[in-house]
Design a protein that fits this description.
104 residues, mainly alpha
């Protein structure tokens, strides 16, 4: 079996991109490990804010999880749908950054 040696592959990629006048930006693992906690903190704060901004009810108690006597589903439209989709994307990014932190 042939396995790819990633260190040689990255060196080859750097040389190839430099030869073809592409800017070479490849992060080292040490740099990634040093900035990853800050990325996770920012994603956690953003995810918390996005979850709290989603509307659960029209009453005052809706902001705290109460006041939802309407059991039927409603269709998200406009800004509510965009906020919902952004929340999903930020949640996936947070989980991915956590897995990267476990691996690194």
């Amino acid at each position: 079996m042939n396995f790819i040696d990633f260190t040689n592959f990255i060196d080859f990629l750097k040389i190839y991109l430099a030869f073809n006048n592409f800017p070479v930006i490849i992060l080292s693992m040490e740099y990634l490990v040093s900035i990853l906690p800050y990325i996770q903190i920012a994603l956690a704060i953003l995810l918390t804010a996005l979850i709290l901004l989603q509307q659960t009810g029209n009453e005052l108690g809706g902001a705290f999880g109460g006041g939802d006597n309407f059991s039927a589903r409603h269709t998200r439209r406009g800004a509510e749908k965009a906020l919902f989709n952004i929340t999903i994307i930020v949640g996936i990014l947070f989980v991915a950054s956590t897995f990267v932190a476990l691996i690194a």
